[in-house]
Specification:
This protein is of the alpha/beta class. The chain is 43% helix and 15% strand. Helix 12 crosses helix 14. It starts with 6 loop residues before the first helix and ends with a helix.
Length: 480
């Protein structure tokens, strides 16, 4: 331990982070993200010799999950002093190694060698955390470890060297639309909790109409969700300006100006900020590195490197292109989306006027649908791609593809969306013949199951708010 550090100061910090040691009251939000249940199950699995990592953007509730876990363990009868929570970005704790902190914990609070749960928040700020965790997992089986990390560096490049086989990663995306509605306590009545999107193909027209009627109260909430996004702190906040300021200051600026410097060693933050704004303006578009570099006055190498960092920092999604069978694929140009459309709204200061802009709403809804597909299907580790014909420019926005299924989604958030053989979705399904295809629409009136002559695919035309709600609801069934 550093000579200038007073041992009692560190112990005071540990006591402050762990009020349950002394029976002091502490409150945690009652709403639990899916990651709470996932983390709990992994911690209780005695055969699992790994640490569990909760990884996602800032302000999505990772710290809350750790605090809820501490509360649940104490209520279940665990010795409160066996539960150690650490916020490793605390200025004092950053001066110590994890080994030194644990030594003080055992000397002052809880005897070494007995079973203990370590709840490690923002683990990427701990000194030499990769080596420390490796040693704990390999040589200290009495510890159960649940950690969080905002930056993808935690489980990508750096874990590749020292953490192979020692981590299970549980992603925490922004709130689904279902979670957003749940936090606001405005769930609709009469929706079967086990209803999945796939079940809708078996419903008759009248059943779909009845379902749309029961879900219609969600429409204004979906508009709100599209504007303020999936962050627990802003879900119930009615002041849009405050919501957007919080997102700019605490999510975007903190990641770009702090995490990127401290964790990735980025030197030219200005170039990174310019690229992020460029992506806000062109979210969902095909990005040509050379053209982007020219617009930003930088190099293609810088653009490529910064795109990788933004993806690792959980700020953007990347969609690679896909080709049709027997045809040359579009020259490899990826599409990029922000992980939550509200970040774009906050940076560009977009308010309720977006509702009357069909082009903007199309981009925002496409981003939102993508977030739900990434979250729902991640356990299958599918490919998520897009398709565009280089000659005709016909396109399918999102294709979720695994050995078990191919699911194309075309987002047409507009009046009277076309679905025929000449459309992108029709052309793709005529060639690839998937069992099911999805046209994501705006209006209830479009809600239907249909087919196109000469194409074997069954198509579900589904309003975006119904699709997102049911995908979010169904996420919970994965851990049921």
């Amino acid at each position: 331990m550093k000579d200038f550090l007073d041992r009692t100061e560190i112990i005071g910090v540990l006591n402050g982070f762990n009020p349950w040691w002394s029976g002091r009251p502490y409150a945690v939000p009652p709403f639990r993200r899916l990651a709470f249940e996932a983390g709990r199950r992994y911690l209780e699995d005695a055969t699992l010799k790994r640490a569990v990592l909760l990884s996602g953007p800032r302000r999505v509730g990772k710290t809350t999950v750790l605090q809820q876990t501490a509360q649940a363990l104490a209520q279940k009868g665990h010795d409160p002093k066996s539960i150690l929570y650490l916020s490793l970005d605390h200025p004092l704790l950053k001066l110590l190694s994890l080994r030194e902190i644990l030594s003080l914990y055992h000397e002052s609070t809880y005897a070494e060698g007995k079973a203990a749960t370590l709840l490690l928040d923002e683990i990427q700020y701990a000194r030499e955390w990769e080596t420390e965790i490796k040693l704990l997992i390999d040589h200290k089986p009495q510890y159960r470890i649940l950690a969080t990390g905002s930056a993808g560096v935690v489980h990508q490049d750096r874990l590749a060297e020292s953490g192979v086989g020692r981590w299970i990663t549980v992603p925490i995306p922004t709130l689904s639309f279902f979670e957003f509605v749940s936090i606001r306590q405005e769930l609709p009545d009469g929706i079967a909790p086990d209803l999945r999107v796939n079940d809708l193909f078996a419903l008759k027209s009248g059943d779909l109409s009845a379902l749309a009627g029961r879900m219609r109260p969600l429409q204004p909430l979906f508009q709100r969700y599209l504007l303020v996004g999936g962050f627990p702190e802003t879900a119930a906040q009615e002041n849009i300006d405050l919501c957007q300021r919080l997102l700019r200051e605490d999510v975007v600026e903190r990641v770009l100006k702090r995490d990127m410097t401290a964790l990735f060693g980025v030197r030219n933050i200005n170039d990174l900020e310019k690229l992020f704004i460029y992506l806000c303006l062109h979210s969902g578009g095909i990005l040509a590195h050379q053209a982007c570099a020219k617009d930003l006055g930088t190099t293609t190498t810088t653009v490529s490197n910064h795109l990788t960092l933004l993806e690792q920092a959980n700020l953007i999604y990347r969609l690679p292109p896909s080709g049709l069978r027997g045809k040359q694929m579009l020259k490899a140009r990826n599409k990029y989306y922000l992980v939550d459309a509200a970040l774009r709204n906050a940076v560009l200061l977009r308010g309720e006027e977006i509702y009357t802009n069909p082009e903007e709403m199309g981009t925002i809804v496409e981003t939102t649908v993508l977030r739900h597909l990434f979250a729902y299907y991640y356990r299958d580790t599918p490919e998520i791609v897009y398709w565009r014909d280089a000659v005709t420019q016909k396109e399918v926005d999102i294709i979720v593809r695994s050995p078990a299924y191919v699911l194309p989604f075309e987002v047409k958030y507009q009046e009277n969306p076309a679905l025929d053989k000449r459309s992108g979705l029709g052309t793709y399904c005529l060639s690839e013949n998937p069992k099911q295809g999805y046209l994501v629409t705006k209006r209830d009136a479009d809600f239907a199951v249909t087919q196109l002559k000469g194409i074997g695919t069954m198509f579900l035309k589904i309003p975006a708010y119904i699709l997102c709600y049911l995908l979010g609801q169904s996420e919970r069934l994965l851990w049921g």
